[in-house]
Amino acid sequence: MTGIDLTLRALHHGEQHLAEELTAVAERHRTEHEIHHIATDLARWSTEHAQRLADTLRDHDVDDPPQDSSSGLLSTLREKAAEALGRRPEPGLLLLRDLRGLHLDATRNSLHWEMLAQAAQATKDDELLALASACHPQTLRQMRWTNTMIKQLSPQILSSL
Amino acid sequence: MHASVDRIGQPWGGRTPYDRHEPWPVRVDSFLAEGVDPRTVQRWVQATSLLHSDGDAMDIAVVDGRMVGVRGRAQERVNHGRLGPKDLYGWQANASPDRLTSPLVRRNGRLVECDWATAMERIVSRSRGLLEERGPGSIGFYTTGQLFLEEYYTLAVLARAGIGTNHLDGNTRLCTSTAAEALKESFGCDGQPGSYDDIDHADVIALFGHNIAETQPVQWMRVLDRLDGGDPPRLVCVDPRLTQVARRSAVHLAPRGGTNVALLNALLHEIIRTERVDHDYIAAHTVGFEELASHVRHCTPRWAADICDVPAARIGEAAELLGTADRLLSTVLQGVYQSHQATAAAVQINNLHLIRGMLGRPGAGVLQMNGQPTAQNTRECGANGDLPGFRNWQNDSHVADLARVWNVEPKTIPHYAPPTHAMQMFRYAEQGSIRMLWISGTNPAVSLPELSRIRSVLSQERLFVVVQDLFLTETAQLADVVLPAATWGEKTGTCTNADRTVHLCNKAVDPPAGARPDLDIFLDYAARMDFRDKDGGPLITWHDPESAFEAWKRCSAGRPCDYTGLTYDKLRTNGGIQWPCHEQAPDGTERLYTDGIAWAHPDVCESYGKDLETGASNDVVEYRSLNPDGKGVIKAAAYLPPHEAPDDDHPFQLTTGRTLYHFHTRTKTARAPQLNAAAPDVWVEASVSDASALGLEEGDLVEVSTPRGAVQGRLRITGIRPGLLFVPFHYGYWDTKSGHAPDGDTPARAANETTVTDWDPASKQPLFKTAAAALRRVEHADGHTSPAPTTTASAPARTDAIPATTGGPPAHASERADASRDRDEQDIG
Questions:
Q1: What top-level branch of life does the organism fall under (chain B) (predicted)?
Q2: For the whole model, what pTM was predicted?
């Protein structure tokens, strides 16, 4: 397996993980309506990225062990928990922690996209470069979104507890 | 010509046709209370309309200290003498016997009367306590689009620099925040590019989700007069209902809810594909065209046809009209602003004008409209989640400049994050970090989405709610302190309409004993709180409307909304004047962007823009590299499917909206007998095919339900697009047995029982147009018909057997089409 393949695999896992985390955060913060809706929208980008990376890995004949995905029961539980806690301030801290986690996950993916784009140029792999050029901007937008939400929410959440 | 016209049955009155590029003829409309002879009117007091955003200039007739009627002002640029139905009849609500005349405070769970000092001290002591225990972030202000400029400005200073809270927003969040955001995205700064006079010159007028016939009926009269004159314009209408606008359009597109971006991208695709773009304009005045072109390359009419459920050929016809127009005027309202991907869609309409070079010339313009009369003032004064004077919260020099105007330290003014938007404020209140919410001139217990949630937020013991209003609204019934306010005609201030026209609206009569002007209430609070500037002087140095206006002028100086060339005297003499008005433009400014995009430079712009799909803020570095020279920004956006789609349990889409005869939550219009009778109760609209599939008939009592709640009303079968239901949002509970919410005796009638809590990520405007819903019959019509008006978009598909909406003799108003007036109607005061 080449270094590119290793990076593809790491990024594939990273995008799958981010899609799951975005979905989980959307469910956990059902009563934070903007978080809920936008995180759901952004999960779609990572799912698409993961799909395209899986296709590329297949083209490269690389095995990619499947990841566990979250169960329906767990997501219902998360939504119900969110509704039960909707009137309390403490979930605000949990929200900031979750947004920080999403931001770091997206940052890890972004760096992998950067590596792949660089390697694609070095190896003149136009397909890989096209993939990175199509997906990486959306990863950067995921990072900008988490950063914006943290910036907007932390003054109120941290000063009101 | 002098006619007496039932302006309920004929809302737009008689025609005065005129040719393209000619001035719109004058027609003076007036309505006096029954039995009042015009010759007995003692004073005509200069004012402007309050029940929509058009800014119709009018005079209030006064006899013995009472309002007895109104008359349009012939020489005013906005309305040329005309008035709409709400202007003609709405003033009667002022004299309603149930006006609030005493402050109320909650004691042992009940609201009881008290004096002003008691009520104000209760607010002050709670404010001080919260500031000490929890800090300024525990106090929020939720205002409106229906006060005056002087009041918003005072509120903005006391909230942002006095309390030092970031939580000040208006209900303008629900009506106009997407207009503001779209203008900021495309032009770097808020400010309406076009002018109503563009209607006189355009050869194509495109109305995007804008039922102008009902929301700005006077400008619809202007369009109708042009349609009947020489060289009439062709109309393009995007609206899922068969509105009066749709009936007069050359092309009517009725897309599936939530698909505006797909439709607009296809229109842009066609215009670019057919090379109907102005490359010189694009090169001189814009950035981002290449990205847009590549973005919409795959967005063919055929692609959009599936998403929008509109024939590809119709999209092609619309693109042909938009692409070949010689002077294109586009107008935009709630069908875009309150729908999915609101800002992204509104920005594509700006893009249409940027790539066609259709800006800054007579007839070539964009009107990103407002819903409320003074929404523009809420925006420019910084009471709508912006800093005053369209200053940029991310630009330290703008904040320093504002601090200089207010004589405070820059850090006094919260600017570490964008001012908090209304939906987030309610979330903070729900979560318990906001503990005091002061609501002025609006009724969130009817107007916000998902009402059961809003009622539960406002009813919390730990949240101290102050409501300042004319009546004991649904919201006031949940308050801890209620302050009785004066209103239009009882106080003086300025109003700026949707095309930047500033009018002075004078006091004509005294308010009811006990009620006070909103400005006086805010000034009283500021004095009791003893807010100070950095040198220990009073923070607020003004004491009446005119001195507040002078203070605002200093704050507006050098900004796009520059008022420095205006005075109360000048507005009295000249009538309405469009801002910016300053030394170089003493007569005001008809159109913005006549010579490029003036306010987009990184150093002056109000906003560095946002990601239209996520709402993430750009920073100055990104903006500077994208747009170093301050040009118009062409911003592409991808179509995303709506967050709530119909399914087996909820097979319909539900949209809420307005009717011509009512405003907001009917606090005034339901108290004007002619308006109330024209649309006395809530109704539900469904298409002919859906009604027939479900075996439903006109007048059946039906229930519309969504995962949030249900609402009942009588069915009107109309030309609305199949699959879509419509419910007007005006109706609440103050005139039902229960008072503020549905209960055993009062079925749910507020449309917002059903709406979803979701908002546009960029403008934070809540979405009211894309819920999934179920429809079922509760009982057969059994002789009842729907209370929906027949004159408007709710006109029945089958006209037989449904009585036409009329006002009869009580609604007869006068129309005088020549400019001359009877001597006995001359101005006296």
A1: Bacteria
A2: 0.96
